[in-house]
Each structure stands twice: as structure tokens, then as C-alpha cells.
Amino acid sequence: MDFDEFLLAQHAGIPSQIDSYRQTGTLFEGGRMVDFILCYSKSGKFRADVKIDNEIIYSEGFDGEYAWDSDQALLGDPALSLENSVRWPNPIRSLQVVRDEGHKLTWHGLKELHQQDLVHLTITLNSGSSREYYYDPETCLLQYTLEQRKLEATAKPKIVETAYTDYRDHEGASFAYHLLDQVEDDEKAIVDIQWNYTTINPVLDSNHFTREYLPGY
Fold first, then answer.
1. Is 56 domain-assigned?
2. Contact, 121 vs 110, CB < 8 A?
């Protein structure tokens, strides 16, 4: 399978009728467990909410024009990180769409990772941010990503590997229900997300992706 064949196969596995999705689950980070809600739209918007005891304690997102968190509109690197969140591929956004938007995809062919022969490519967004992607060549499902990430504000960036497992089908689209972030070559998890359920094309308020909106999930 060459690059174009893989892009076509991966794109064909994403149903066109899905415009948005919402996932609800649990996030473990730094010894703390919180409820986590993530909502993406094909229109280039997303929102993440963190809840404890059924109360939202933090929100962040990108409304298609501005990045924001619970307190303010964001600028600089924090804003760029949130804007990039809607540029990377996701369960309803194919690699072909990413390339068609002008972002750079570099094909590396098959590469062994964790004793698996996986399709390996690098995505470099127009913003300059890059991330390595590893896909199962048979199912075209994402298995791992690698990217440099600052884990502390003053620390040097480290390579963080994210594993995507426990795939489940929803209306023809495949969603990984377990995401595990680890520093490369370190078995200690830094972020562990377990999704409980996924809603396809949820009914959303018109200003759902804005900072002013406080959802009552």
C-alpha cells in the first residue's frame, strides 16, 4: 500500500454523516481523577470540560476564531495549542482532509513500534507544530502518536507517546475508548483517559463552543 492508497482507505472509514461528537469519561492525571467531557465539530470547533462532584471546575476550547479557557481569551502558545486541537486528525476528520487544507503529511512507510509493523507518517501543521502518527495498516486505525511536549513550564520538552486502544464503533466511525500518555521509554503514565460513552451528532446550543456557555451535562 502506498501513501495515496492509505489516505483513501483511511478517509473511506469515516462516515460523512457525522458532523460532531461528544465523549464523556474519566481522566487520571497527577494522582487526581476527574470527569472529562470532550466535544468536537467538523466545523473546526471544540470544547473540553473538567468536572468534580458533577460541577465544572475548568473549561477550554476553540470557537472557530478564538481560543479560550474558563477565565479569559488566550494568546500565544496556549492559544496555538488549542487551535491545533481542531487541525489534527480525529475520528471524524481524516488524514486526507488534513492534507487538503494545506498541512504537510510526510510518509515514512511501515515502521516497527512495540513489536508491530505500523504505517508511520509525520504531520506538520501550517502553524509549525508536528506530530508523528502510527496506524494499523489493515484497519487504518490510529495506534500511537509521538510529539514533543512541555510537561512543566520551565522544563525542556520531552517526547510523549499516546497509545489509542479499545476501539468501539459508533454509526460507522471508530473511537478509541482508552488513551494513555507516557513519556517515551518510561512506563509511568502521565495522563490516562477512559471514555465511558460517545454521543454522535449531539444536540448543541448555538454558542456551545464559546467561553460564555456553561453546559449542564
1. yes
2. no
Helix/strand/coil percentages in the chain, nearest 5:
10, 50, 35
Average pLDDT over residues 33-37: 96
CATH code where residue 162 lies? 2.50.20.10
Residue 12: pLDDT over 90: yes
**Rounded-to-integer distance, Cα 69 and Cα 41, Å:** 18
Report the pLDDT averaged over residues 85-104.
95
Q: Is residue 212 part of a domain?
A: no
pTM for the full predicted model = 0.92
Q: Considering the domain boundaries, does residue 182 fall inside one?
A: yes
Sequence-separated (6 or more) residues with CB below 8 Å from residue 195:
23, 24, 25, 175, 176, 177, 178
The residue segments making up the domain with residue 183 are 3-200
DSSP-derived letter for residue 156 is: P
